[in-house]
Amino acid sequence: ALCPLCPKAHRSMPARRPVLKVVARRTSDSCPFLNEELAFELCPGEVVWLRGASGAGKSYTSLHLAGLAKLPGAEIHMEWDPSVAAAQRIGFLFQKGVLIDSLSLAANLALAAEAAALPADSDAIAAALEAVGLSPSADGSKMPGELSGGMLRRAALAQILAQRKRVVILDEPFVGLDPPVAGEITALLKRVAAEHGISLLLISHMAERAAALSPAATVSLERARPEDGDAARQDADLSGLRFAVRASRRFADYFFISAPLIAMAFAATGAALSMLLADMLQRVDVVRIIATFLTRYLAGNPALPLILQLVDGVVKQNEAAAKRKLYALAIGAASRGLGSLRRARLFTARAVEQGPSSRSSSARCSPRSSSQAGSEARTPATSR
């Protein structure tokens, strides 16, 4: 039976006729790989494994083929089969997929098909879902957040089938999958590639999974800058560096960061407290408070008016001095409290900085054996 998701050109295309021929030549030192030339062909139903160490340019090369980036320091020549339409050339199977969270799985596939100017009816969507082992009725209405890792890989592959892509770049397709699920995705990729005549360009560090796809060719990239990984192994004279670094860091922290910040914080806090206290003292009417108290407890006493008059004169003579005294006492108490907080902050910061090193140094200076430590740990609390 003819596949409804595959173009007519593929149905009549010879199996070994390359869909894409790639030749990449290194032109400058900015190229991430050392290979002078890379050459490979992508044929229908076959897998090409692009392997190499991290930083060797695998992802850069694949992104260049997809037209998403330019590989630095290299020239890449791509020769496509003339029967392959430009809109159906390359699809990318990303690790986490590119589904829109607010759309259902079926709606995402319909959107992908419409973007490629292809039929987006329910039959085409159902065919794409069934091709990757998903149920149109049970899974088509699910939201991306309801899909597992394996289902997301299947959904991403269904998107590519809905767009009838002829070459699919697999960017670490097995990362984050449990071994059984990774095995299912491996079998699915092999079946889909064979049934739909899709060429797969695999990028993976998992040699076992890559071998399970039976690649027709393996292209190895040699990283051009291996010295980046050897920098930590270079010998260097670091004597005296530790003290200098620690001293400079503490000096900068205390005098240029911590001290100014603490001074500004305490100045702002002190200003706020002083303004609040001054306003409170200004609003307090001592004469009225004393008069209210005396009126309540000396009610009916004929001498009350004379007493109130004496209190008014005495309080008004001493009110200003008393408020100044209260203000000074309150500000002094607040300053002592803020000073304690300042010292606590500095000591805490110093303990945090010195904690690991002091603990390690004390551990090195203490030659107790583990048995001694264990015996001390078993000593009752009363003996201590």
Total strand segments: 8
Order of secondary-structure elements: HEEEHEEHHHHEHEHEHHHHH
Secondary structure class reads: alpha/beta
Q: How many H/I helices? A: 13
- As a percent range, the share of helical residues equals 40-55%
Provide mean pLDDT, rounded.
77
Question: Spans with pLDDT under 50 lasting ≥5 residues?
Answer: 8-14, 228-240, 355-384
Distance between the termini: 87 Å
- Give the C-alpha Rg: 39 Å
The largest beta-sheet arranges its strands as 5-6-7-3-8
The proportion of strand residues reads 5-15%
Give the biggest sheet: 5 strands, parallel
Overall 3D form: elongated
3D structure, described in words:
With 384 residues, the protein is α/β, with parallel strands linked by helices. The chain is built from 13 helices and eight strands. A five-stranded parallel beta sheet has the order 5-6-7-3-8, sandwiched between helices. A three-stranded antiparallel beta sheet has the order 2-1-4, with no helix packed on it. Helix 3 (105-115) packs parallel to helix 6 (149-162), helix 4 (122-131) crosses helix 6 and helix 10 packs antiparallel against helix 12 (304-365). The longest helix has 62 residues, at 304-365. Mean pLDDT is 77; it is low at 8-14, 228-240 and 355-384.
